[in-house]
């Protein structure tokens, strides 16, 4: 078996813009996804070093990035309306990998990224990933209000 991965790397944009970044180049953000050095700037996704309640950095990936995006959108709206923004709360996550249209794996995880429950593999996992990418993800982009509803479960 051969496993090949190109890895993840944060772009140099945040560092070059003068924002505070960690050793891995990811922008340092608070629990509402706001830059710790420039509070007028928000960072989400793989370029931002969001942290869980236990202080561990969120892993790179679409799942954690989506949670961080929902948190940032909510925080911006809260600040614009004078409310105190809620902080990111991640209680669990999952890994969802497509290996083509007919194979994949889905593994739910605890907040420390340890496996939780059974792993789904094969065609069912590939269909699940496809539903997320083309169905739920696309639907959420077309209807951002639903993302705010979903975000209410990921905010403290």
Automatic annotation (TrEMBL):
Residue ranges constituting the FAD/NAD(P)-binding domain according to the UniProt record = 1-48
Q: To which species is this protein native?
A: Pseudonocardia aurantiaca
A Pfam family hit = Pyr_redox_2
The chain's coiled-coil residues are none
Query: Its domain of life?
Result: Bacteria
InterPro entries per the UniProt record, alphabetical: FAD/NAD-bd_sf (IPR036188), FAD/NAD-binding_dom (IPR023753)
Q: What is this protein called?
A: FAD-dependent oxidoreductase
